[in-house]
Amino acid sequence: MSSDKEFLLLPNSPIESPENKLSLRGLHRISSASTIKSVYIESHSNSPCSSVGQKNELQLIKEAQMKRLNKPVNLNILFLGDSNIGKTSLINAMLLKYFGIMNSKLEKPNNLRPTRTVIESNGSISSNELELRVMLIDTPGYGFFSTKEKWLETMRELIIGKALDYKKIKKQVPKNILEDNRVHVALFFIEGPRCKETDLDLMYNLQKYISIIPILAKADSYSKNELVQVKVTIISQCAEAGISFYDTSSAMGNKVIELSSSPLGPVPPFAIISGGDAIEKNGKTNFVRKYTWGQCDIHDKNCSDFRILCRLLFGHLVIPILDTAKFLNKKNLKSLKNNEKKIKSHNEFNKNANRFRRISNFAARFIFNML
């Protein structure tokens, strides 16, 4: 189990308050599997806020849309996929780049262990009076579970459980201070060069609960030309399997051309490389993977789609993602309620049937004894 001591503040990070340190807030059991005695949510809260002076740098939400909501906006992102595929590395890179937080285990990359718990890391991006509160939810890979069905059920319980919690809290907390902890979107990691059958099966079953954005992991395994082909293959496979990813094109509107601006081919899927070593240069810390021929920087658009992914997630796509998530969460809760009614009705029917059976048996014995 990770602890809050695993995180430290970078000395050069713009921090609003020295008291605003990372702390461990909650520990909640959500499910279990035979290969994992129990899965917990470990919540790192009160993350330092990065004060962003130039809104264009982050493509932050349009001011009018933010003010329309009249409160800080919550965006909660779930990281899903197989084990040892780079989910935690991407979260660490986002934490460092946008929230000034660094996992101290990255100082010694060999100590970075696979995630076996559900860990929530919270931070906020501020610009003038606008604030975007982000929760990055790291999850165990399905490889740690005895069956993919147990992993799927655990993720389903996590998504629906948060929606149920929000529904309860919503009735008790004033709307202007209500924190939305529901899951809004999932990044599903695919290793390539093709989707595994397990990936296809899990994404197909998950899409009814959450919007999915595909991530092509370990992108440094391919050349630029190969990446384009791998992306096409993944999209084709998923379409044939009946998987509908989050409609990024429609959400982008007249800025849809940005989806074709990556040197590594159209997005999504977003090609991402694992972080590797944390290197400080000119007062900035970046994640770099070293090779015999040189190195790849996760922030370099010629090596990774990291920059465009973050620019879209924390900018253009925020409001569309939240709108879609609101619809899906309501649909999920309605479906859950209907299922509960069916189960209750079925149990009531069985109860009445058993009662009738007992009465019939008693009547039959009574009549037999009378003869």
UniProtKB/TrEMBL annotation:
The keyword GTP-binding applies. InterPro entries: G_SEPTIN_dom, P-loop_NTPase. It comes from the Eukaryota. Gene3D superfamilies: P-loop containing nucleotide triphosphate hydrolases. Keywords: GTP-binding, Nucleotide-binding. One of its GO terms (molecular function) is GTP binding. Pfam families: Septin (PF00735). The keyword Nucleotide-binding applies. Residues 71-340 form the Septin-type G domain. Belongs to the TRAFAC class TrmE-Era-EngA-EngB-Septin-like GTPase superfamily. Septin GTPase family. This is Septin-type G domain-containing protein. The lineage of its organism: Eukaryota, Sar, Alveolata, Ciliophora, Postciliodesmatophora.
